[in-house]
Write a structure and sequence with these properties.
Length: 276
């Protein structure tokens, strides 16, 4: 299940809509990115997002806080939330350990939470209400749709329970009428649970953690992990022998995350302009 081509289609459509927005309102949609510290991986991710914004016709504003406290981060995000020229806000995560990340996320007003990380957005995903989805989980659902995988009635096993990936993707799958099982570090006999799955979402952050022997023939495997050496959370070669569909790493879920971020930023711009 290759995400690159689908992501390109989503970005191209978002670029068209961004141009329409600019022509209609005289400004570009604007995404503000806040980064705390100078972690090399986070800096690289932010640059990737800025480049994608440029290609999509979205203004990119960057706020760098090298040695900030939670109060300072919340203050910066609150300023952006109150700024009518900013349509979307993204706090690059993970934040350094001194930052209360949930408190920082909560400073993002729901209408600008284009990364889908606030409690408001999670509630919207859980209850099927209008709102912004977490970008990686939303990208996973779009991939399933593109490849004709209907979760309805299927058993989906989500390995990992992070608030921005594992938990929300489970909620989105539940909203599509899948039977969802969450697995985590305290789960007993994980291989036997995975063997019962029709859809497996691996989001555990451990290289090649999910083995091919754990999978039943015909399973759909979504590898949402990315680890050193360009490997995911699934032992790809083993899993590909059993799976009917599987996402590669890189080139599977990753491109979809950025594409959803661009799409939701343009959506936010239109929604805010219409309301104002």
């Amino acid at each position: 299940m290759h995400g690159t081509r689908l992501a390109e289609e989503i970005v191209a459509h978002s670029a068209q809509r961004a141009a329409e927005f600019s022509a209609r309102f005289g400004v570009k949609p604007c995404l503000a990115t806040v980064i705390v510290g100078d972690d090399p991986a986070s800096v690289t991710y932010v640059k990737m997002k800025q480049n994608r914004c440029h290609k999509t016709g979205i203004d990119s504003r960057h706020v760098s806080l090298l040695a900030a406290t939670t109060t300072e981060v919340v203050r910066a995000i609150t300023t952006l939330s109150d700024d009518s020229t900013v349509h979307g806000i993204l706090l690059q995560h993970p934040s350094p350990p001194q930052i209360d990340e949930p408190a920082a996320f909560e400073a993002i007003v729901p209408e600008k939470d284009v990364d889908g990380v606030t409690p408001h957005s999670f509630a919207a995903m859980a209850f099927g209400r209008p709102g912004f989805v977490s970008c990686t989980p939303g990208g996973i659902i779009r991939l399933l749709d593109a490849y004709g995988v209907d979760p309805s009635g299927r058993h989906a096993v989500v390995i990992g329970r992070s608030p921005i990936l594992g938990k929300p993707v489970g909620m989105l799958l539940l909203g599509r009428d899948a039977t969802v099982t969450y697995c985590h570090s305290k789960t007993q006999d994980l291989p036997s649970i995975v063997q019962s799955a029709d859809i497996v979402v691996a989001a555990v952050g451990r290289p090649e953690f999910v083995k091919g022997a754990w999978l039943k023939p015909g399973v759909v495997v979504i590898d949402a992990g990315y680890n050193a050496g360009n490997v995911g959370d699934v032992a790809f070669d083993e899993a590909a022998e059993r799976a009917s569909l599987i996402t590669p790493v890189p080139g599977g879920v990753g491109p979809m995350t950025l594409a959803l971020l661009m799409e939701q930023t343009v959506d936010a711009a239109f929604q805010q302009a219409t309301v104002s």
